[in-house]
Amino acid sequence: MATIKDVAKAAGVSIASVSAVLNGSGRVGEGARGRIANAIEAVGYAPNTIARSLRLGHSHLIGMVVGDITNPFSGALVRTVEKVAIANGFSVIVSNADGDETRVPEIIDQLRGQHVAGIILNPMSRSDALVKQIESRPLPPVVTMDQKLPGLACDYVGIDNRAAIRMLVEYLVRLGHTRIALLSGRVGRWTADERYEGFVAAMADAGLVVDPSLVARAGYEGESGYEAAGAMMTRQDRPSAIVAANNIIALGALQSCLDLGFQCPADISLAGMDDVPWSGLVRPKLSIVGQPIADMGELAISWLLERIRAPDGAIAPRERIFRPFFAAGDSCRDIRPASPPSPPPPSSRPLSPRPISSRRRAMAQ
Amino acid sequence: MATIKDVAKAAGVSIASVSAVLNGSGRVGEGARGRIANAIEAVGYAPNTIARSLRLGHSHLIGMVVGDITNPFSGALVRTVEKVAIANGFSVIVSNADGDETRVPEIIDQLRGQHVAGIILNPMSRSDALVKQIESRPLPPVVTMDQKLPGLACDYVGIDNRAAIRMLVEYLVRLGHTRIALLSGRVGRWTADERYEGFVAAMADAGLVVDPSLVARAGYEGESGYEAAGAMMTRQDRPSAIVAANNIIALGALQSCLDLGFQCPADISLAGMDDVPWSGLVRPKLSIVGQPIADMGELAISWLLERIRAPDGAIAPRERIFRPFFAAGDSCRDIRPASPPSPPPPSSRPLSPRPISSRRRAMAQ
DNA sequence: CTGTTAGCGCTTTCAA
DNA sequence: TTGAAAGCGCTAACAG
């Protein structure tokens, strides 16, 4: 591997000059600059970022902790973050907690060891181990997503989970539904708890009772949605509508209903959170509340880069709660006894039929 | 950040002893060992892997170059690779070429600069820039996926793309189709070329002519599939069946047909490559030829780790071509004049109705 | 404008 | 069993 020394020798200059050229400080003369550029090409030199990092005291690596890399939500987020990071000379280490929040602390220790310049963190929960670790160890700049981390001087980017679920519940209520089920993630997983609480509050505000047996807290995976929905749909007093707390659960629930021979929305109405790339092709098209992933990802990485560049403690903790958006599909039935054919959606964001490609782009960029 | 020096001072020993304890060389006495362990805990020491990497000449980072991180195919691959890598003490840097093969060389240079221990590389094409770079620069151990890189002493993991497309064509031919279109990726993109050639060969073997105007080489993105299919379907002599060279194209094409008011499979038959997580919920369910992603990812990272641990040049280049599998959906119509209702699928792999969750797992793990 | 040099934190000889 | 010291490749004073 060619080093800066080789370049210097090939160009007949000192390593300081090579370094200066590499870092753009204009202290090098035209002639030398040209010879150095040639030498770099000739010896196939690529700067050793490890040595540079050691010298500088920090790397140009950014750690990104996602809950589940196979969720298209994560993929879209990673893509956005990576794009901005690379444009700024940083690389991204993606760490996948694989749905298990207890893995977060060890992932962070790993990242600490890599001396990453900053971390974009979905903490997933507020486990004791995580809190303890964060309190006891120094951390690089951090931007949290999905869940706030109180007591840590970091930024937070998220959406209002309660409001999001509320939009879903209110939509269903307006369609005449009263017996509404909720499928959410496991207890202790932050967004799952928030969405659960939003559900309870919205139901109460609508004057409806929450049947505890119609609330499942099984997990964010497709299996969970499939099984929980199956259990509810095979009961005598099955719900008329199901709210799913994420995209994967919703798809699992839909599959379960179809497998059991139910029609959607004829027999069961279904509404979920988060967009999926091919939502336009899933039949029936799901009514959803989505998150502006690209905007969120861009803000998160921008804030992180600011923090990395700013002197320690110069930036006060910031937070931005994005507005979720509603997109009506045809997975929910109007079951009011006598009523106009269709109520207006609760949000201004229209859902015209558009090709999946553009919908995908809307989600991914 | 505490360094090895701080630990040494706190323990009243030299840094050499601390290092020895950290690395398990048993040259340190009991007493010293105990004091060092305490000191490490007391100062909250985490080894600086950057310094260690500089000293050792290599990092515990693995670079992974994917074609398009938003393609669920990539997500599943990353997940598998990362899981195995972490279990072996490595971290993964994910680099996204974002569909643009000309970005691969610079990505590799980036990774070289990071002094990654190895690279899992989807070269995407065999561009001059890439070949030149690979010939002229030293590279860490490499395992290529999707496309072989001749002349490089590395391993290769892929599938037989021609055979995969052939399965699709033969399936359609058996259903009585003769006017079959192909939507593939751009010219120069390896898998796209291979799949195109497989298509031509399979058509010839079936005694069918390839209508050049029914072959699109627009790109692997959903937009491409949408537009190309739209153009073909609005012609007078539209095809009776379309073969899509990847999952995203297939979904775009399906959306396009539906938007134009065509029924699938009544008006148009559609078959594609690669599974998608929610394939069970897309209506109609697509007939596809898939790749055993998890197996491929696991082999790739295992081979890479072997190469990283082996002395230079100790392992001869290996390659493994996985068998693609066929999974029948109901997106293809039998248009033979008088015939039995349905032909047997060309492969033994059954496609029973299964919940998306398990299908997802089948794809992702 | 250019070169010399002191470290960044670590591992690893080599002496003691 | 221990410690001193060299040096991985780079950047940034500082000296010329």
Q: How does this structure look, described?
A:
2 copies of one chain form a homodimer. Chain A has 365 residues and is of the alpha/beta class. Chain A has 3 domains: 4-47, no CATH class; 55-159 and 294-324, Response regulator (Rossmann fold, 3-Layer(aba) Sandwich), CATH 3.40.50.2300; 161-291, Rossmann fold. Helices cover 42% and strands 15% of the residues of chain A. The first copy, chain A, is built from 13 helices and 12 strands. Chain A has helices spanning 4-11, 15-22, 30-43, 49-56, 72-87, 104-113, 128-136, 161-174, 190-205, 222-233, 247-259, 293-309, 356-364, and strands at residues 61-66, 91-96, 118-121, 142-145, 155-159, 180-184, 215-217, 241-244, 269-273, 287-290, 319-322, 325-327. Chain A has a 6-stranded parallel β-sheet, with helices on both faces. The longest helix of chain A has 17 residues, at 293-309. Chain A starts with a helix and ends with a helix. The model of chain A is unreliable at 344-365 (pLDDT under 50). Chains A and B meet through helix 4, helix 5, strand 2, helix 6 and helix 10 of A and helix 4, helix 5, strand 2, helix 6 and helix 10 of B. Chain A binds a DNA duplex (16 and 16 nucleotides) through helix 2 and helix 4.
